[in-house]
Amino acid sequence: MMSYFSGPSKPQPAALQPVSGSVVARQAWVSRIGPVNFPLDVQAIGDSVFVAGGDGSLASIDGRTGADLWRANAGAPIAAGIGTDGKTSAVVTQANEAVAFLGGREIWRQKLTAQAYTAPFVAGGRVFILTADRAVSAYDGQTGRKLWTQLRPNEPLVLRQSGVMLAVGDTLVVGLGGRLAGLNPSSGSIRWEAPIASPRGVNDVERLVDLVGRVSRDGEIVCARAFQASVGCVNTTRGNLIWSQPANGSQGIHGDDKRVFGTESDGIVRSWNRLDGERSWTTDVLRYRNLTAPLVVGRSLAIGDFAGVIHLLSREDGSLLNRLSTDGSPVAAAPVLVGNTLVAVTRNGGIFGFVPE
Question: Given Cys at both, which of 92, 99, 109, 276 links 80, Cβ 3.0 to 4.6 Å?
Fold first, then answer.
């Protein structure tokens, strides 16, 4: 009998296809952190991987062995993180506090004017924070003293997911709405802005435009995704848009010197030529599997899904090379490469290290 309350059926995830097995990897180690219920950024610096859990826990782990280097706690549930330069690490709590650690020891905390969903960016002895009111603030990395704030006219809505913040040369590159902006890291003054997407529509939801992490950087060229609008590349020296193509995804992108790769909201995986934005290849073998942003690793793309599986696709044509299993809960963040180890973190807090055989 048909129920009057049944809605349209949800699209079924694509069944797992046979893989070629031409890229072989094994699980080398496993560790744990608190459950991940926030937009986690996993950081890889040297041979260390830095992670955080929603319960306030932070950890630095040896990517070669899975052994703890240090553990700490922010004292409150985490809303955004983790940012680090390998020495100073920072997170933002749900109590709107930025908390910084040196090693595993807390060195300062500062109250923020708004919530943050983007991991702090730590560089040049400073901690930079992008808050949901689209303000960028800089803090002294040792003392937490606020150095400057750059506040742009903000739209009413913002995504509850990780945005864009990185350094290119002596410029702090930040996503502000649908624009990539270059800031002077010493003063916060804006050097240039390049629109990857523009607001469209008649209401606030339709007009929501935000750049999402991760990004693909090759030298001075930074490519980024505007949420469910487009993918584009910007020359950060000149501050000009090179190309922008329509794309309907919600996760960040990655790339190499020839191509940019991304996962669309329906699980289609796409490749664009980095030079001009022309499509290179498309595959639907992972359709409706709630994919993470990709990671370029060797000749593969590593992409996590809702079932805790890491899929390895060919960078050349998108064909399935292999898959790696974690704990069955969704992969919580785009995988990272730590030395020779592929690291993935799941929603249940599992941290898995895989190495090639």
Answer: 92
Spatial distance between the Cα atoms of 284 and 248, rounded to a whole number of angstroms = 14
Q: Report the C-alpha gap between 287 and 305 in whole angstroms.
A: 10
d(CA 158, CA 348): 26
Which CATH entry fits the domain spanning 40-159: 3.40.50.2300, 2.40.128.630, 3.30.870.10, 1.10.1200.120? 2.40.128.630
CA–CA gap between residue 118 and residue 83 (Å, rounded)? 9
Domain chopping of the chain, boundaries: 40-159
> Distance between CA atoms of 260 and 124, rounded to whole angstroms?
28
Instruction: Tell me the pLDDT tens digit for each residue of 127-185.
Output: 999 998 889 999 999 999 999 999 876 665 566 789 999 999 999 999 998 999 999 99
DSSP 248: -
| Residue 51 structure tokens | 């992670």
CA distances from 269 to 228, 229, 291 (A): 14, 15, 9
